[in-house]
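In response to reviewer comment 3 from the previous cycle, which asked for concrete evidence that the modeling workflow produces usable outputs, we include below a single protein chain processed end to end. The sequence was submitted unchanged, and the resulting structure tokens are shown without manual editing.
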Amino acid sequence: MERTRTRRTGTRLLLVAALACGLAPRPASAGGFQLNEMAPRYLGTALAGMGSEAIDASVGYYNPAGLTRVKSGSLSATAAGVFLDTTVHATEATTLDGHVNVTGNNGKMSAYGGKNAFIPAGHVAQRVSDDFVVYLGVTGPYGLVTDYPDTGVTRYMATLSKVISYNVNPAIAWSLGRWIPGLSIGAGFNAQYARARINRNVLFGAPPDLIAEIAGEDWAFGWNAGALYEFNEHARVGVSWRSMVAHRFSGFVETWSTGSGASLFRGGAHASAQIGRAHV
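The workflow returned the following structure tokens.
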């Protein structure tokens, strides 16, 4: 009798671990987490002309070649507010296997998981000669946080989903006007830190629920480059490219009981994601 009970417990833990590992994302693009709150000027114009306007240091993020239009030095900083309403209203809900109907507390069929946030960004540029301008930008290009209650109607799909990134981007711009009037080029290096955490409830047989969570972090690297051509004082065109940044997250998978709070399983985990975009 004791052997049977031990075997069932061991099988249950293996199933929990397997399901927790299933929370890990497959290799995918992170475009759904993209943030554009890099500079107040471009937010005010809905990002129009971001590759060619070249008014202040923030152009270094979008098109480093535009930095050659900085006369001496430039500093740009912003803290944009993002206020989310991510209320879910369900007409019906079940566990992932579809066998058990689900509601929230007191039969509630809605859940709120929005998290307000402020997204800081800073850019500084300095002319070092007639032909060269250097730049440093610190931004948060990707991020998302939703946090639904672990007793809500969404608990078997998602509770906490959190992705945060920080990007450090030094760059240099070179005016080629001595040889090709109106033409500038620029290039930069990107060092990007990203952290992710995802969890949801799991029901095996009878309550209480288990919570399965995966969390990880990574440093990854990429580059950006651009060109700017000025026809005259009032007309110019820019093109730029930002490479993909391939993250391979390293962290852990853990499950614990909502009843006792006891940890049932913890182990290493790996997941990957590619993020990036181009500007024209």
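The helical segments are 2-21, 40-44, 59-62. We consider this sufficient to address the reviewer's concern, and the full set will be provided in the supplementary archive.
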